[in-house]
């Protein structure tokens, strides 16, 4: 059961990253300002919440799973074999992805929602100075997160087939 919870939560995490990096992020600049504003204000807060949930529970289920199958013996993470080596690399990369998600993607996304909400309240005002910088940061962070998550999948598949 723990394995399935870990796999399903990982699919949610990777899916959230893919949806943003491949679909939402590239589409936003092509929309009209009013359409973009509506999409950001209505979609981004829900997306951020969804992504945060899966970003949190995937490593938790992974750690609990590792502890369960080893009965608390951390030797499973020993780099003396491919299983331990790639499991350890994947676990370390999940910490990197966690920092990207909670340290960059979520706060920057919330900042963009705030900027956009403020702009929608004052339609004639120029865009806030930080909006463009935040948008670039969000695109870079979400793409970086996706790359790290894909590397984690590779590590987990190699570990599982070792």
Describe the structure.
- The chain is an all-alpha fold.
- The chain has one domain (2-160).
- It has four helices and no strands.
- It has helices spanning 2-27, 33-70, 82-121, 129-160.
- Helix 1 (2-27) packs antiparallel against helix 4 (129-160), helix 2 (33-70) packs antiparallel against helix 3 (82-121) and helix 3 packs antiparallel against helix 4 (129-160).
- The two termini are 22 Å apart.
- The model has no long low-confidence stretch (mean pLDDT 92).
Label this structure with key terms.
single chain; 162 residues; 0% strand; 84% helix; mainly alpha
Order of helices and strands: HHHH
**If helices are DSSP runs of H or I spanning 4 or more residues, what is the number of helices?**
4
Indicate how many domains the architecture comprises: 1
Intertermini distance: 22 Å
Average pLDDT for all residues: 92
| Rounded Rg | 19 Å
Cα shape: elongated
According to DSSP, the number of beta strands is 0
The biggest beta sheet is recorded as: none
Beta-strand share of residues: under 5%
Structural class: mainly alpha
Low-confidence stretches: none
List the helices and strands and how they pair.
Elements: H1 2-27, H2 33-70, H3 82-121, H4 129-160
What is the compact description of this entry?
The chain is mainly α and 162 residues long.
């Amino acid at each position: 059961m723990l394995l399935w919870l870990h796999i399903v939560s990982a699919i949610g995490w990777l899916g959230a990253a893919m949806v943003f990096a491949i679909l939402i992020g590239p589409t936003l600049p092509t929309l009209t300002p009013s359409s973009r504003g509506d999409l950001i204000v209505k979609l981004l807060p829900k997306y951020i919440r969804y992504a945060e949930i899966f970003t949190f529970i995937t490593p938790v289920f992974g750690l609990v799973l590792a502890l369960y199958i080893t009965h608390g013996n951390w030797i499973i993470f020993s780099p003396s074999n491919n299983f331990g080596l790639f499991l350890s690399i994947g676990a370390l990369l999940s910490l990197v992805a966690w920092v990207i998600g909670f340290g960059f993607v979520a706060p920057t996304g919330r900042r963009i929602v705030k900027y956009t909400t403020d702009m929608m309240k004052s339609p004639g005002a120029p865009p806030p100075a930080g909006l463009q910088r935040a948008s670039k940061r969000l695109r870079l962070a979400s793409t970086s997160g996706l790359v790290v998550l894909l590397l984690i999948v590779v590590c987990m598949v190699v570990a599982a087939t070792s």
